[in-house]
Amino acid sequence: MTEVITNIQDMQRLARDFKRDGKSVGFVPTMGALHDGHLTMMRRSIAENDVTVISVFVNPLQFAPDEDYDAYPRDIEADTQAAKSAEVDYVFHPSVEAMYPGEIGVALKVGRLADVLEGAQRPIHFNGVVTVVNKLFNIVQPDRAYFGKKDAQQLAIIEKMVADFNHPIEIVGQDIVREADGLAKSSRNVYLTEKERQEAPELQKSLKSAEKLYREGERESKIIVEAVTTYLESHTSGHVDEVAVYSYPGLIEQQHIKGRIFISLAVKFSKARLIDNLIIGDEEID
Ligand code: PAF
């Protein structure tokens, strides 16, 4: 049975009960508009923990005034149905007023990791993400929390936050879940026009061409970035916002590739900015 909890104190009481009863808690934080990527994390959490909690909360703090906070898809009925079909135990769905009852007195600020890539495009975004994730961790008190690797920069920042703030939580990164044609699942894919939707699988194909170059021994980032950019420009009508090669999870831009890297791209279509990435190479160097 899936139960929807809207009250923060009720959720905290449950979290205390789970601890008292020695039950492990898996947590999947979401902003709703649940898709197969979320469902994969929910199923994994159910397999790995005694209790699974998901949160559905569109966090105003991580949207700039010109972003899609108001338009962000919200359908708690459909999300609850999806959670029920996955057999999630609890859906935590607090109101904005409950989460942010007054003026914010203490805010979190992400350091260097937020200065690049998505963070450079969206300067307040990751401060809002770490603030809400901290609050959610304090409320739900999970043993494990699941985040998608599509938002690889977010995952790296959350891992750093958990280390810096000593949260006793294991962060589990979930591989990107894709449509049959290769488009990475995202709640924002609904913004694509029909033509853009047809072009969108080219994003993954461009990354595959980068992977091929890498496997053939190419280690100059410039060559890989140029190949991906040219591919995207000739196969999509979107504007190529960024193609970059960074170390992962340290997020330092690489000229000459060594260790584990992250090839990241962002393409702006008429109403959606899509991101995709490839993490490659075994050894972490930072
Ligand atoms: O990835 C998301 O959906 C959000 O950034 C998160 C982690 C739920 C925080 O609002």
Structural account:
It is a single chain. With 286 residues, the chain is of the alpha/beta class. The protein folds into 2 domains: 172 residues, HUPs (Rossmann fold, 3-Layer(aba) Sandwich), CATH 3.40.50.620; 94 residues, Pantoate--beta-alanine Ligase, Chain: A,domain 2 (2-Layer Sandwich). The protein has 10 helices and 9 strands. The strands form 2 sheets. The chain has a 6-stranded parallel beta sheet, sandwiched between helices. Strands 7-8-9 form a 3-stranded antiparallel beta sheet, covered by helices on one side. Helix 7 links the parallel strand 5 and strand 6. Helix 6 packs across helix 7 and helix 9 runs antiparallel to helix 10. It starts with a strand and ends in a 6-residue tail after the last strand. The model has no long low-confidence stretch (mean pLDDT 96). The structure holds pantoate (PAF). Pantoate binds next to strand 2 and helix 6.
Compose a concise summary of this entry:
The chain has 286 residues and is α/β, with parallel strands linked by helices. It contains ten helices and nine strands. The strands form two sheets. The protein has a six-stranded parallel sheet with strand order 1-4-3-2-5-6, sandwiched between helices. The chain has a three-stranded antiparallel sheet with strand order 7-8-9, with helices on one face.
